[in-house]
Amino acid sequence: MATWGYGNDNGPATWVKSFPVAAGTRQSPIDIVPTAAKCDTKLTENPLTVNYSPEPAMELCNPGLSVKANIKSKSVIKGGPLEGEYKLEQFHLHWGSADKQGSEHTLNGKMFPAELHLVHYNATKYSSFGEAVDKPDGLAVFGIFLKISDKPHQGLKSLTDVLSEVQYKDKSINIKQEYNPVCLLPDNINKYWTYLGSLTTPPLCESVTWIVFEEPIEVSEDQMKAFRALCCGECGSAPIVDNYRPPLPLGNRQLRASFQ
Ligand SMILES: NS(=O)(=O)c1ccc(CCCCO)cc1
Ligand SMILES: [Zn+2]
């Protein structure tokens, strides 16, 4: 199969041909149904802790199906559902061609216009992201919903203001100003759902402890337009839009909530 993507010929329904785990039992994303989540006090007794550091010259790139920032500084998380310390590797987003769609996780069947993923690997047990990526306890990903407001998100503005410089595939730039990814988190990180899942793109490894925050971050329509202006290839290629995998069955998994 040619490279995977989100089109009719290479989209999510076709991935199982090259990546059989797509039909696995702990796939992501899922539809989050809060009333079906089990409130687990163990999650609150051991609060999720975020220790992110400023990134001096953060690299922003267009790999062709999203926009990604690669992290070099020591930014770590622990607690909540996690055992050990997980180190931030990268963050990226998924978004729609219109505000009615774009997120990967859904909330009671509702899609948000976009979803931000902060990808961490288990640095206590593994020496690199590459080693951790296919281990059942290898990764932890923060899922943050984006919703539209009339004000731009200041933290994302440092990125959306320069997206035109990575408009084409394989372009990358360094963000001049020091950037601390903590600015991307919602105000309240104590309210989240967590479950055992997978990467939402090939290779779809079943290696992710998902932590999806209840509180969305707010972005402007202009910022959404900036994401939708990114291109899959070189000048004249199709825009990167609708780069989301639809939800998979929860199956026998337990969805836990850190709050009532
Ligand atoms: N949408 S996601 O957060 O699940 C995600 C994170 C990271 C990768 C990269 C896998 C690279 C394998 O070599 C792919 C998907
Ligand atoms: Zn993602």
Which terms summarize this structure?
260 residues, alpha+beta, Carbonic Anhydrase II, two-stranded parallel ribbon, 5 helices, globular, binds 4-(4-oxidanylbutyl)benzenesulfonamide, binds zinc ion, zinc
Poorly predicted runs of 5 or more residues: none
Mean pLDDT: 98
Kindly state the number of beta strands: 15
Largest sheet: 13 strands, mixed
What name is given to the CATH topology?
Carbonic Anhydrase II
Domain count: the total is: 1
Strand content: 25-35%
Q: Write the element-wise H/E pattern from the N-terminal end onward.
A: HEEHEEEEEEEHEHEEEEHE
In whole angstroms, the N-to-C terminal distance is: 45 Å
Question: Which overall shape is indicated by the principal axes computed on the Cα atoms?
Answer: globular
Count helical runs.
Answer: 5
Please identify which CATH superfamily we are dealing with: Alpha carbonic anhydrase
Domain Alpha-carbonic anhydrase: 2-259
Family: Belongs to the alpha-carbonic anhydrase family.
Cofactor: Zn(2+)
Function: Reversible hydration of carbon dioxide.
